[in-house]
User: What shape does this take?
Amino acid sequence: MEAETDVDVCAKWSETLRVYHNTSCELENELQSRHDLGRSEFEVLLILSRECGAAAGGKAKMKDIEAEMYLSQSALSRTVTRLEKAGLVTRAACDFDRRANFLMLTPAGLERFEAAKPTHRAVLVKHLVDTTASQPAAACSR
Amino acid sequence: MEAETDVDVCAKWSETLRVYHNTSCELENELQSRHDLGRSEFEVLLILSRECGAAAGGKAKMKDIEAEMYLSQSALSRTVTRLEKAGLVTRAACDFDRRANFLMLTPAGLERFEAAKPTHRAVLVKHLVDTTASQPAAACSR
DNA sequence: TGACATCCAATGCGCGTGCATGTAAGGTTC
DNA sequence: GAACCTTACATGCACGCGCATTGGATGTCA
Assistant: This one.
């Protein structure tokens, strides 16, 4: 079953690439143009909004967020810096472990996130519910 | 079926991200460390080796390659430049349309590709045959 | 207390990417 | 053949990423 596995695996990878590429490109484009948010930035907001419940003004440690994302420590650090500059998030030192940082959603951050959520959902539904919907190997935005 | 679709779609995306991330990171690492090839570079060689049959010394137009990859025109151009510098590929002008470039696999390129192929296959099999194999959200190389 | 390993986050650096643009070569129309 | 649009590829540029390193805070052990 060597050759057979070969073909299956290549086709499966190809399919994964297609879905990943189409979805993530459109996610990036839509989030960026409609809400001025990158994919990573949105994801951080998403995690924050879950972490303590949006009402509580989500709050989480950098390390915990990092563990939930496919992002290096340095990339997360910079993503948070961008979010902070945009006023969507606040860094707060942890009193019990001054190495660690807490991250908090600001009201503006929560608002931005809530606004972007439907966009996010719509793109996912479009590309993932009926996988054949985005069949062509559509490039990023061209 | 709103909420249900929501959950399904998020889980599916999450799963896709996991598989994509784990597979592509390991692909990148393995190809780079064992064969000094990036993922895009390998893919170009792969396409070339198919295009006219490896024995014929694969040959294809840039545009045709671009159409088969999830890569922008500029990124492909630079990837080919890297391959050319490494002596794995040759650019050749097309006599009938001097805008177009043909791309040819050199013997060294074919050799490198054949050497890397098993590595590529092994990674795909590892991550895609039994999807639960790489369950943890393993980061890139950490 | 002092020496050393470990952990968290920030930063310098290089790389590959996409977008926008530039350049050269068709193709079309008059 | 002149004016114009389109196509193929290369290149300037900015950006986000990962890796390696740094610096400060903790923990541990003698």
